Amino acid sequence: MYEATYHKPASVDAAAAAMAGAEDGKFLAGGQTLLPTMKQHLAAPSDLVDLRGAGLSGISVSGSTVTIGATTTHAEVAGNAALQAACPGLAKLAGGIGDPAVRHMGTIGGSIANNDPAADYPAGLLGLGATIVTNQREIAADDFFTGMFSTALEDGEIITAVRFEAPAASAYAKFPNPASRYAMTGVFVARTADGVRVAVTGAGSDGVFRHAGMEAALAADFSPAALDAVAVSEDGLLSDIHGSAAYRANLVRVMAKRAVAAA
Questions:
Q1: Residue 1: is its pLDDT beyond 90?
Q2: Which residue from 3, 65, 182, 203 has the least number of CB within 10 angstroms?
Q3: pLDDT (tens digit, 9 = 90+) per residue, 168-208?
Q4: Which residues contact 166 (CB under 8 A, 6 or more apart)?
Q5: Given the DSSP bridges, would you call strands 195-201 and 183-192 parallel, antiparallel or unpaired?
Q6: What is the C-alpha to C-alpha distance for residues 162 and 59, in angstroms, rounded to an integer?
Q7: Phi then psi for 234, rounded to 5 degrees?
Q8: Domains and CATH numbers, the chain
Q9: What does the alpha-carbon distance between residue 40 and residue 129 come to, in Å, rounded to a whole number?
């Protein structure tokens, strides 16, 4: 690992100031991607700005509005009783990320900022129609995830929380890689006040995406059988050593049906 200057600011403003003064700094949340990358000498930031002391952790449910702080760990999301009642689909999603070590260190903000194409949270937040709150603005999930490892975040912008309205029903189903537990295909389904939303992760060559055909079918009939006649195109899907595009297209349907059944 290359030498780096470590900062642990006590507020979001102090974190932003530390990053502004860094030559080539990186924000550090759970470190589940950044630190292994640094250990392999694939990244060499001049400064690490640790957000875990900036007061960004915690979960609140006020009426139907759910707010989750950016440095809240996967284990905290999975185990929070209020969230389990308001949105069991997201709580269960968090409980299936990685292993216990990853779940107790990794954070929701770090995951969506990295936007790994096989990560679970992007599907959850896109499926819920969530809002990503930063120190500068609020960004709809539909506008936040812009491509593989790419988001709408500007340089120096800090995710502070995610917020969404509790859905009437929600669930997540994924086919995990047996080694990494990343999703070879994962589907999050939510029935919200604005309609049904279906978000797919792990299968798209450009990252997480919504499936309009499934949303339309489930809006008319929220049942697994409603998806039988929905076409799932191989176009734009990943094809790699773990599975072809055709295999993933089938997984999209299978995981979606399981998610609807669970919801």
A1: no
A2: 3
A3: 999 999 999 988 889 999 999 999 999 999 999 999 999 99
A4: 61, 64, 65, 66, 86, 87
A5: antiparallel
A6: 10
A7: -80, -15
A8: 5-50 (3.30.43.10), 59-262 (3.30.465.10)
A9: 36
Here the tokens at position 131 are 């809002």
The amino acid at residue 192 is T
**3-state secondary structure at position 55:** coil
* Residue 183 structure tokens: 């999703």
Burial code (b: 16+ CB inside 10 Å, e: under 16) for 24-47 equals ebbbbbbbbbbeeebeeeebebeb
User: Residue 39 in 3-state DSSP?
Assistant: helix
* Amino acid code (one letter) for 195: G
Kind of pairing between the strands at 131-134 and 138-140: antiparallel
Rounded distance between C-alpha atoms, residue 3 and residue 33, angstroms: 17
Alpha helices in 24-164 (DSSP H): 34-39, 74-79, 81-86, 88-95, 100-103, 108-114, 121-128, 141-144
In the structure encoding, which two tokens stand for residue 143, read together? 């506008």
Claim: this prediction has a pTM higher than 0.70:
yes
Question: What are 213's two structure tokens?
Answer: 């055909």
